[in-house]
């Protein structure tokens, strides 16, 4: 018993004292500037005191109650997000499998054999029937991880699991942003449809007025035909936006994973509650919170661990097989005194020459270089996405102000042109041009309002989102 305990303690000490041959991991320096770009396009400060996006839960950022309910439905039913969650469960199980390699596998085995031995092989010279009962409890081929091969494989599996978890977080942030953008696009297209319908009503009334004037000779046939073109153009826009609204609803249904109740759909963009504004913070904060960058770094760490496993494969490997049990030629004597058996079979394998192990080691070094490049590319891509969104954010305010002024001026121009035509001072062509300008300016205002809201959603996404 003391000998067994001593052996067990020796094995445990040896196992815990094993070394790791993996290279020391140091986070690479970010290949991007320390500050966001500046210039005329970045009129708003890129950094400063205030609330950063990662401090804002998505429910506080998307304050519209109906939009919140739609996002909730998407988080519960979206199939891509469900697959991402299942991938986490899968990699977690794979990690547990790899971690289990550190521990011995203990098996219990019972066997029974019966054979006839011919006389020429029997000690008595007579044929005999031999029965043998055997019960064993033991460890089979347990590798003592002296050089950290198994531990490094376990660490690599852990980093892959962590990378998958970050992929799920990234998928959730992307889903929330995509649902919000689709919801806002639907609201804008419905507002464009409403504008087209209103324009059709106005143009239809104008056409009827000109038709009556033409009947009494107060207006020309040219005026009547020009009015007809605006009626037909409005009808075309109504058909186009009706189809686009249907496409938007289909896209939203796919993202949500189930039909969206009509009561949760927006009527127009103007009724959607404004999104919460925030400061972008510094590039270093983005690198700390972007889940795709955490994912790339976990894969880089896994590549480091795989190098350690490949190096350990070049060193001797010791495996241990042990068993204790009892054997008898009779079932009743299986557990009687004197029937005990044991076996202790350590094995050491010393690599002499195996080109495959060296090639595998080279593969792991190349994999690390690839993971490093991918990590740096993820940082650069993140920096570019945020810089683009900030550039758009810095100019949208000016665009909104100018577009609103254009709408007001176009409305005044249309009103004056219509009054001059009614009094017979001007031709209907001027009215037609003024109406086109007003309609285009109104559509442009809707587009800029949509761009301003979707820009905030994009910033929310590219800055790492909130829980």
Question: In total, how many beta strands?
Answer: 4
Shape: elongated
Per CATH, the architecture of the largest domain is: Up-down Bundle
Distance between the termini: 56 Å
CATH class identity of the largest domain: Mainly Alpha
In sequence order, what are the helices and strands, one letter per element?
Answer: HHHHEEHHHHEEHH
- How many domain modules? 2
> What fraction strand?
5-15%
Label the structural class.
Answer: alpha+beta
Estimated helix fraction: 55-70%
> Strands of the biggest beta sheet: in what spatial order?
1-2-3-4
Mean pLDDT rating: 86
Main sheet record: 4 strands, antiparallel
Low-confidence stretches: 45-49
Give me the CATH superfamily of the largest domain: Outer membrane efflux proteins (OEP)
Number of continuous helical runs:
10
Please state the oligomeric state of the protein chains shown: single chain
Q: Explain this structure to me?
A:
The chain has helices at 2-16, 58-61, 65-77, 79-100, 149-215, 221-256, 283-289, 291-312, 355-422, 428-462; strands at 106-117, 128-144, 317-328, 340-349. The protein is of the alpha+beta class and 467 residues long. It has two domains: 14-102 and 148-315 and 355-462, Up-down Bundle (Outer membrane efflux proteins (OEP)), CATH 1.20.1600; 105-144 and 316-350, Outer membrane efflux proteins (OEP) (Single Sheet), CATH 2.20.200.10. It has a four-stranded antiparallel beta sheet with strand order 1-2-3-4, with helices on one face. The longest helix has 68 residues, at 355-422. Residues 45-49 have low confidence and may be disordered.
